[in-house]
Each structure stands twice: as structure tokens, then as C-alpha cells.
Amino acid sequence: xxxxxxxxxxxxxxKDQLSDQNARKNSIEQRGIAVVTTSGALVSLLFGLTAVxxxxxxxxxPAAAKPWxxxxxxxxxxxxxxxxxxxxxLFYIGVRxxxxxxxxxxxxxxSVEDAEQRVAATQxxxxxxxxxxxxxxxxxxxxxxxxxxxxxxxxxxxxxxMLRG
Length: 165
Fold this sequence. Notes:
By secondary structure, the chain is an all-alpha fold.
């Protein structure tokens, strides 16, 4: 036994968990932006394809393709909205400066054990909130990606109908 206290192990573990949640938040937000970008690009292609096809002489968009194109457009828009929502600045919590000021003023002479325990308790509270909000953002991202997959599927059906004429 090295004589070290368990509090050092717990503190390091809590700090790692907080870092993991910050990385998770950043990853979700980056993937949300990717969904927005791809949805925008695919909607542009959808409009371009529709313009080319409907601008051709004597071309009539098959009636059966219209609902699929509409569904694709709606799903792309829902996917983009979901991607944007993943980047909303939700109410993550942290320590307020006034609380730190108070701790410095009233608790500066606490024992190391008391200070470590208070810091750990605060970090666990921040971690719990971050995990909850990141889970919400994760579900929104999952839905956005699902909407984008549906949109591509709908668009494929519409293109298939248009190619068959």
C-alpha cells in the first residue's frame, strides 16, 4: 500500500468523466453540423434535379413521384432542424463565480479532505447535468440522422419513378 488516500483516485475518475462528457458534447454538436451540411447539399441537389427535369421540353413529372419528392424535402428539412437543435446552448451547469468567491472567503481554511469532498460533490453535480443534456442531444442527433436516411430513401424512390417515366 502506498499510503495514498482513495480521494485522489475518486477525484481523478470524476475529472476524467467530466472530460469525457465535454468530448461527447463536442462530438454530438459536430455531427449535428454535418447533418445540417449534408441535408442542405442534398436539398440543393433535389432542387437542381427537379429544375432540370421539369425544365426539359415535354417533360412531365410523374404524379407518383411528387409525394416522394415532397416527403424527401420534408425529411431533409427535419434532419437539418435536428442538426441545428443539437447545437443549441442548453443549460449546462457550472460553478458560479459568486459560489467560488464565497468558498474562498468562508472555507479557505477547510481541511484538505473537506475541500476535496466539496469539489468532488460539485463535479458530480455538473457531470450528472452534462450527461442528461448530452443524452437529449444524442437522441435529437439520432432522429436527425434517421430523417436524413429517410429523405435519401424517399428521394431514391422518386428518382426511380422519374427514370421509369
